[in-house]
Amino acid sequence: MKFDSSANAVSKKSLSLLMPAAVGCLLLASATLASGGDWAQYRGANHDGICTEELLATWPKKGPRIVWNAPTPGGFSCFSVGGGLACTLVLNGDQEACVALNAATGKQVWSVQLGSSKYDGGGDTGAKDNKGGDGPRSTPTIDGGRVYVLSAQLALFCLDAKTGKEIWKKDLCQELGGKMIRWQNATSPVMDGDLIFVCGGDGGALAAINKKDGSVAWKGSTETLTHASPIVATILGVKQVIFFVKSGLVSVEPATGKELWRYAFSFKVSTAASPVVSGDIVYCAAGYGVGSGAAKIAKSGDKFTATELWRKEGKEALCNHWSTPVCKDGYLYGAFSFKQFGTGPLKCVEVATGKEMWSKDGFGPGGVVLVGNNFLGLSDTGELVLVEASPEGYKELGKFQAVQGKCWNTFAISNGCVYVRSTKEGACLNVSGR
User: Fold this and answer.
1) pLDDT band per the 50, 70, 90 thresholds, residue 287
2) In the predicted model, is pLDDT for residue 20 greater than 70?
């Protein structure tokens, strides 16, 4: 599928719908989209994979209603939804492209090429024709009539949300003194207020970029980027940005970059799942035999400390390869496996102890989003499941084949709809009950 990559005008040729939707369903979707909240960046507004909307607690026998389908060739980028757009990154020949779709209809609004789609270093992608990877893995951020995109080559773009026209662009390696890492960038531009938090590659600086003009607001310590996106969280009443870099977890003040605390964590080959915060506990994990661990954060005066609660290491240890779990009431829910494609389990794990509460095979490295007392999980084969978020056991409330293709990513929930995609197609599913 080739996309119109003009950055200056709305595309006249829309994406073809792979599955027709009734006019009534589209009108319903439009009404729903106008009444709820946006999911405008990777893992949602609070960087935690938690949806605060009231959605269906059980599904009809036929599953959620499909509002639209559209091709999304290549990559593990997720959808961000805001301002009437659903944005993601795809492969367009030998280029990465940011594509904006009409969130209500799935029709293409614009597409902009970002640069080379080369992903070196090999990689166990399961794609014989693409040894370097299946495409872009970063997820756009939508804010204030703009779309912010971080390419595989660590180029940070600010695009006009209406047209895709470039407003500014920054080469983060050049600006922050780093170089490219193996398999290129997979992190997403994480925004809080007027700042975008990034790391400048291998040996680059941790930094905050001003969203208005792309200027560097601050540069902090020198670190090596991993494939894990940072998060913004409030711990013990203090907002902080937590980077998961090669040395481990580094927490800093958002406004200044002042370091608050560190938690040393092993690195081997790649780290890709973001940290997870539960009260004053921070959990992290990595594949390739590294395993997982959790640290308890304490504060005395203005000084923070991080004390390890537990660590599980080795090939058989509890780990998340690149699928970040969600947390509810002190329990983690997510895809805990390493290269168990199509078979890896969903698990519930007590965050304070690392104790496994239950496990259910047949999921693989997909994504999860918490919704009230339940969570939605997307398997690596595109099957969407609705599960009760309880440590008492696995209780499935619904199952639906949402898309065809490979899904090594998470998804968005906005205004009563789930926006999910694979390496082949994207879909909007109505789960609002309206």
Assistant:
1) very high
2) no
Q: How is residue 413 written in tokens?
A: 């929930």
Closest CA to 392 of 358, 360, 418, 426: 358
Element (H, E) at 419: strand 417-421
Q: Give start and end residues of each alpha helix (H) in 133-282.
A: 172-176
- 329 to 33, 68, 326, 346, 349: CA distances (angstroms): 30, 35, 10, 17, 11
As a whole number of angstroms, the distance between CA 280 and CA 330 comes to 11
E-state strands within 95-225:
95-102, 108-116, 141-143, 146-150, 155-160, 166-171, 190-192, 195-199, 204-210, 216-223
Distance of CA 178 to the CA centre of its chain: 23
pLDDT tens digits for range 379-412: 999 999 999 999 999 999 999 999 999 999 999 9
Provide the whole-model pTM.
0.90
> In sequence order, which residues have a C-beta less than 8 Å from that of residue 23 and are 6 or more positions away?
none
Helix, strand, or coil here: 35?
coil
- Whole-angstrom distance, CA of residue 375 vs CA of residue 359: 15
Nearest to 407 by CA among 58, 88, 60: 88
51-98, pLDDT tens digit by residue?
Answer: 999 998 889 888 999 999 999 999 999 999 999 999 999 999 889 999
Alpha helices in 4-143 (DSSP H): 23-33
Number of neighbours of residue 125 by Cβ within 10 angstroms: 19
- One-character DSSP codes across 321-366: SS---EEETTEEEEE--SS-TTTPPEEEEETTT--EEEEE-S--S-
Strands 367-371 and 50-51: parallel
Instruction: State the sign of the Cα–Cα–Cα–Cα dihedral 263, 285, 185, 191.
Output: negative
Structure tokens at 206: 């941790």
Residue 270: which of 244, 243, 251, 306 has the closest Cα? Answer: 244
